[in-house]
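User: I'll paste a sequence; please echo it back and then give the predicted structure.

Assistant: Echoing your sequence first, then the prediction.
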Amino acid sequence: MALDSDTLDQLLRTLERFVRERLIPLEAQIAEEDVMPQGIIDEMKALGLFGMTIPTEYGGLGLSMVEECLAVKVLGLAAPAFRSVFGTNNGIGSQGLVMDGTEEQKTHYLPKMATGEIIGAFALTEPDVGSDSGSVRTGAVADGDDFILNGTKRYITNAPQADLFTVFARTDPAEAGGRGVSAFLVDASLEGITLGPKNRKMGQQGAHVCDVIFEDCRVPANAIIGGREKLNRGFATAMKTLDRGRLHISALAVGCANRLLEESLAFATERQQFGQPIAQFQLIQAMLADSKAESYAAECMVMDAARRRDEGENVNTQASCCKLFASEMVGRVADRAVQIHGGAGYMEEYAVARFYRDVRLFRIYEGTSQIQQTIIARNMLKQA
């Protein structure tokens, strides 16, 4: 654990106050306007949220996996678009650099990522490359001491605000799959980078996504994460970050489920039908009970896997189990929440309508549910 128990408790209490007093009251406005207020971003920076998982020697909080999951579970009580603002800086945008970067790269980028001065984005997905992420077609051709990048990245979270892209590009066309792929740290201000229009999404308004197009973008060779010795080994860097990212999303799903339960309980105890609160009807109670049981099961899974990871255990299977169960779980909880609200649940003024759309993405990013099933089964067969 990075923090003593008193400091951790204080952090979690501070985060919950921030969520309930500052974030939740803004949810409807952000859903309507699709704009994250700069004041809220500044408050996130002041709380250290951009550097939760970045090591303390580079200015971050250096939270362990267990501590990160506890914090993210609290943050999940608010609309997930808020977490998306700083999520990449703590996850796939920085952890590859933490694990495999040179000391020079870490010293240059991580302190600025920890404060939010640099917003990171993770550029792996392409128009024809999603779950088969080892088949990237964006190319990086050596030209003296530089590489020339050409290709398009798709659905890149935070791209419109990003200062730094972690770009995965094929540096050895002769190699199949991920073996010929390198990871580059690409300054967003370089010539040859064009952003597509912001994608119109089903949910999570306020978190922006767009295409990133590289056209003869010249990047120095020392921008390869880990330096030249990591040439053609970038895909391995990407894969290292996934267990932590999947546990992070699983904890977020638990937090969102808890918020949906709060909303459902409040509505069920206030809404009167047939002369009594609908919470008194057993079929409503059954939906509440099922949601609570599933949320609790997911929380137990996440915290167990997080502890194992902190102890140095390989949790590839457990992380995929958590991601599969927790993301599917919160979808069911959201569906029941809408059902408990009845017609009101279909109306925009109720938070459950927004959460119903927002949490649908959890079953897709950081690896779809079907990819998690594949990983779990593959690992079981290997062990057998």
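The chain has three domains: 5-115, 120-233, 236-383. The beta strands are 120-123, 139-143, 146-157, 164-170, 181-187, 193-195, 209-220, 272-273, 276-277.
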